Queue: 3 jobs
Job 1
Amino acid sequence: MTNKKILCLFDVDGTLTKARQKIDHNFENFLLKEIKPLSDVGLVGGSDLNKVIEQMSEDVIHRYNYVFPENGLVAYKAGRLIHHQSIQEFIGEEKLQTFINFVLKYLSQITLPVKRGTFVEFRSGMLNISPVGRSCSQKERDDFEKYDSVHKVRATMIEAIKKEFPNFGLTYSIGGQISFDVFPNGWDKTYCLRHLENEGYAEIHFFGDKTDYGGNDYEIFNHPRTIGHKVLNPDDTKNQLSQLFLLQV
């Protein structure tokens, strides 16, 4: 690689870790000891900071140059909080409750193989909606992902919500195994790029696994300011990084 200032920006779930699992210790050493000396490294995900910590490390905001939970609506640079946005303030409580009430009513009228708890998770910059419930076990999570791939529970629910609220200005993004995110238009993962506008990067490489239309990596993968890399899993991410940084003559 040249001496250009480069940033590698990674989705977490399915890209650096297996779904909702902890990052492999050897892979993280590879990122920090072999890639970070050659490129700045950042993380961007739809989950809140606590979930990023669970999957990465307790001191994640200090290990990486940037950490962008909730698509960058919460943003850390070099361990310091630099930005915080609120969906509650942006939308307003009345609209928010109308929306949540519809979601809960919809879920009460469908039957799934199992239902657990925490169907709507309120985050700083978005709502996370899980038809099966976020308190499901890992096996139930895996089973729902397979069920959803056939029955399109999440996609069908999103279409129903769009029909009910055509003028709310919301984006719906399917990510992970069991849920989808809801946020104001423009608050997808490209939101984090506004924190990088004055950082002087010649290249921003983005790595993600949900890059197809409707996936939560789609917009940033296709953004003109990024070089997109579609990955299949953490092993594929490592292989692509090796090709990009370590195997060039």
Job 2
Amino acid sequence: MLSTIYSSSSVDVMKLTVEKAKAAQEKFQLFTQEQIDQIIKNIAEKAYEKSEYLAKLTVEETGMGIVEHKKIKNELGSMGVYESIKDKKTVGIIRRNLKKKVTEIAYPFGVIAAICPTTNPTSTAIYKTLISLKAQNAIVVSPHPTAKKCTVEALKICHQAAIDSGAPTGLIGWIEEPTMGTTTELMKHPEIDLIVATGGGGLVKAAYSSGKPAYGVGPGNGPVYLEKSANVKKAVKMIIDSKTFDNGTLCSTEQSIVVHKNIKQIALRELKNNGAYLVDTAEKERLERIISPEKGKLNPNIVGRSAHVIAEMAGFQVPEGTTVLIAEEEIVSKHHPFSIEKLAPIFPLYTINNEKEAHELCIKLLNNGGRGHSCSIHSNDEQAIQTFGLNMPVSRIMVNTLASIGAAGATTGLPPSLTLGCGSYGGNISSDNITVTHLFNTKRIAYGIKEMDIPTPQKNANYNKEVTSLVENTDIKNEVIKAVKSIDHSCGEIDQEIVTKIVQNIARNYLN
């Protein structure tokens, strides 16, 4: 009974928050580009200043990840995102094509519902706030229940910075006590105009089922392919750095290592040099039970935990300085825990004989839960890189870099983003790194630039012949005369010209 009352109260508060956001957005859409740019600049700067503070709050609340790494995420989500969008036009006339005589005008969606994950709660909240407001929208955020305090704190910082710069109160809203029911009601609220959902598969499915436009992103299970021409020493260091970044909580992080047999021994040596611990058969079995106590489902208790903590959970010890846990593997399936997405510093190591095997194995791994998201390759063979990229069913392929933060735009030329679309491969509407350009609509004023003669419709070529045939048909004329006399018994002879006109009218109506 108490939970029902609590849930109802939460929904009521959410509805009020949406109403305030709607009222604020109606004022906000009258702001100039300069006013909006000043607001998001202040938000980005204030959030950036609080990056470490928010990182500490996040680790304390969720128990996931590493403070120093979450600080980097917050910096990317604030000033990194700001730098990538600050010069974009998002208000009024944004482009003119003088040659084609088309003028493009931006207009906002309205109120955006944003869903944030537990793995990257504060950085995602900051990033979504910036891109929403830059496009003249209001935003209402539903935090993950296990990260609600740090997420709300990040939003309060953003909201105060916006108010200090002249934004209407309520432009940035949030749900203090999120539940799945409240989040679902938020997405279905009639005043919500767009959903940007980052989270589990069920949540993304709910966003797409809400009846509203939605950007949702799927899970990642991206392999990294160590191609035989790779600089193994450099590649392995990047892979370990990437996998241990925030203890593997980014969906774009490498999930499996696929190595060519010619360089396997060198790779194993470098993995050990970088703190990797290769488990034995008994330890592998223990780890499998910890990774996935229920076959096909990831144990949430290992997400964002260190290799040491996970090893202890599995009942064995690892040396001081261990960075990742690695097990040699051959099978890919939902029922083999090492081959599913593991948001933790755990790797399966697959050995392949040639490029064809590598591609087939990587596709199997992607089809096992990460189709459409990301994968990576380390290689110095440009043809091998291009062929790999063409064959992989993903939306981004990182080359010779850290996949985790490279996909998010930190070490690549991709737009900085914490919502990475999976395209049609992953059942998403977009394959892009979601940014401000996805959060406004464009209307177009188009002038006529070509002359076109519209032809007069041609009548049936046999039209006149058919009319003449009907008019000259004696039986038809006699039927008309009978019909007239049946109506007026007093009439005498009927003028044949009148009969002809009646038949012509009937014929024209019939043929048309």
Job 3
Amino acid sequence: MSSWLTRPGGFNFRQPSVLPGFRLTFGLSVAYLTLLILIPLAVLVLYASGLGWAGFWRIAMDQRTLYALQTSFGTAFLAALINVVFGVLVAWVLVRYRFPGRRLVDAIVDLPFALPTAVAGIALTAVYAPNGWIGSILMQFNTRVAFTKAGIVIALVFIGLPFIVRTVQPIMEEISREVEEAAATLGASRFQTIWRVLLPGLQPAILTGFALAFARGVGEYGSVIFIAGNTPYVSEIAPLLIVIKLEEFDYRGAAAIGTIMLFLSFLMLFIINLLQSWSRRKYGYQN
């Protein structure tokens, strides 16, 4: 009976903590989240509702708004996918290999966390501009990065990489080498060991890192506006469009775009959360 109650997919009745104070800590947590997150977001939605349904729908269906939303969400999704591949690779190198300068590389991964986003945007623009170090080389192949959507993706890859590495790295450290050796002993190839043994254990962490990198990328502003070019219908992001609305004193219009971003972000993160829950149940992880 108890095994059924605690198995993946069944009910999971946790034992109460020996430490007292659940009601107090739970109440403080709910109050904290309500004051800092729920109330401001509710006010945003209520303020946008002042436009009426017709006004809100007009802004939502405006071609400039649609292009800006497509740019923000599309580039954030692509950048998060790129970071999943290379973030897992970087985490693997840091966990499984010992080499000179390893601690330095480990510290460099966290630089996007500490570096102001505007500084990151200026640096990336200087490097990838047509007369920059890398941009001038790419221009010889008729490839332009700065002031295009490609530049936005690069900026979002830059600020999103630490989310993947720092999420996957602790889980990867817990995977014993003996598991890989056992798979090799049973005749598994390297690819089969990675695909059938290592990745299933990392899948929940990878999805978490992807969600964090994606969420950060959707709302990113400082590092993007310098390298994006900010051309309407081409490389204009939704956060910039909100700022433009505010500069035009169209506060309800800005709130309407913010509400749309809030809804779309919540929907995509909810889907990712469902995938996380499914992967945990599939591979036998307890929540």
